[in-house]
Amino acid sequence: xxxxxxxxxxxxxxxxxxxxxxxxxxxxxxxxxxxxxxxxxxxxxxxxxxxxxxxxxxxxxxxxxxxxxxxxxxxxxxxxxxxxxxxxxxxxxxxxxxxxxxxxxxxxxxxxxxxxxxxxxxxxxxxxxxxxxxxxxxxxxxxxxxxxxxxxxxxxxxxxxxxxxxxxxxxxxxxxxxxxxxxxxxxxxxxxxxxxxxxxxxxxxxxxxxxxxxxxxxxxxxxxxxxxxxxxxxxxxxxxxxxxxxxxxxxxxxxxxxxxxxxxxxxxxxxxxxxxxxxxxxxxxxxxxxxxxxxxxxxxxxxxxxxxxxxxxxxxxxxxxxxxxxxxxxxxxxxxxxxxxxxxxxxxxxxxxxxxxxxxxxxxxxxxxxxxxxxxxxxxxxxxxxxxxxxxxxxxxxxxxxxxxxxxxxxxxxxxxxxxxxxxxxxxxxxxxxxxxxxxxxxxxxxxxxxxxxxxxxxxxxxxxxxxxxxxxxxxxxxxxxxxxxxxxxxxxxxxxxxxxxxxxxxxxxxxxxxxxxxxxxxxxxxxxxxxxxxxxxxxxxxxxxxxxxxxxxxxxxxxxxxxxxxxxxxxxxxxxx
Length: 578
Prior knowledge:
Layout: H1 21-28, E1 32-36, E2 39-42, H2 44-63, E3 67-68, E4 74-76, H3 77-82, H4 85-88, E5 95-97, E6 103-106, H5 111-119, E7 130-139, E8 154-164, H6 167-188, E9 192-196, E10 206-213, E11 219-224, E12 230-232, E13 255-258, H7 265-272, E14 280-286, E15 297-303, H8 310-317, H9 328-335, E16 351-354, E17 363-366, E18 372-377, E19 387-389, E20 407-422, H10 424-428, E21 432-434, E22 440-442, E23 444-451, H11 452-462, E24 464-465, E25 468-469, E26 480-484, H12 490-505, E27 510-513, H13 519-529, E28 533-537, H14 539-543, E29 546-551, E30 557-561, H15 565-575
Parallel strand pairs: 3-7, 15-16, 16-19, 26-27, 26-28
Antiparallel strand pairs: 1-2, 4-6, 5-6, 7-8, 8-23, 9-10, 10-20, 11-12, 11-20, 13-18, 14-15, 17-18, 20-23, 21-22, 24-25, 28-29, 29-30
């Protein structure tokens, strides 16, 4: 494509509402334009990158036996009611009525639709296994869309679904998809990690996320140094060397003491000259599935140095959403004291103890009286617990669950998620088949998603510098960016157009900047757009019989003879392995 014929409009300044580098760069490059909160138009350059990534996804999935179809974004309420997700999905599901006063929603995900599609056709074990996928637009009514395409309301997603006759076959399909995803992200050319994850509202009991590493990533990942273990912090088991520390071997008598003005663990630790890990804090949450109707308070005991993991707590309490902390008024109604002076002794509510507290003796907790605490607290002598559980956030330096060293912390952007669903949807929607014995069985399912538009932006978030984007070759809108510095010089212009034609015939897509602009403007735009290889053709170089090549990723420059420039670029292209 020649710039003079392309729809490319760049900006010098970053948009005021962009917070992270990739968002700023994509807007400045004219690759995305916001039309409303969380909704964007994809410019021609962005669409080229998206289509290239889609082609990689299609090739790898079809290689694994997946078949493509396309499902509607508009879905009827009745399907979602079969799985009880019409209400469970909450406000993220955008609902509306049509002119017949019927309830519909915009597809945030397609488990119900695909299960309905398959149950009408699959009758026998002979029809299995089946793997179907689509690449389509979805809509989730995010409460706070931000970061451009990273957390948008409307986005492009690939979702795939597998249907099998038993769990063994379903897990084989899951492994096959896992392998396909690894190939997809390896071809993408990004630094990524695979981590164990929470299944959330999708359901099922096994899932893994694929993350592109980036400092601005919203997800916190914990990975062993040897790479044998990786998990999202949401589900990472927490274990450390301090769990077995005991403050004393003998239980001392319980005592109450004054702690005026000591409202935080940090204040208490400083006053008592103890580390925060030697103190125990009590936090209060609602275990109600509908906190507006009833409270159902529960207490959570942690070492003072630890934090509650909301996903672990959600799963422990079997809630649909993350549990809500009690406010000050609610805490007072439960304990009789203000937050900061509360503890488990004497409370008539369920108490859950993190296993980090389990081996402590003679520790300190709030006394449920303002400005007072107990010391020499011991369980089960002084209070009873419902269970001892792993309920805290793991952190860097914790022990790897498989016993191989310590965890290292990374930030990641979730771009893919695979789930083994089992029969969660098939039983709810009566999607069954007859097995070899003629007995009706529920289909075993898996579902697998990749955020297509999100991934493309995540790649830029990982690959950029102060001057602009650095596209990996696999999904760069154009592989070669030819900077024609003297478009009015007939000889230089003819050489640029000759190179452009020759490379395109070889299948190497090119962007030819043929604008009548100063070289400085062209170089600035070339850095911003970040195509992998830049070719600089100007009068001075041509007079010397050479052209300059610049690799965007490394900044490496080299001069090449005019009569060999096509072959040199072609050789470079083959070395990329695309």
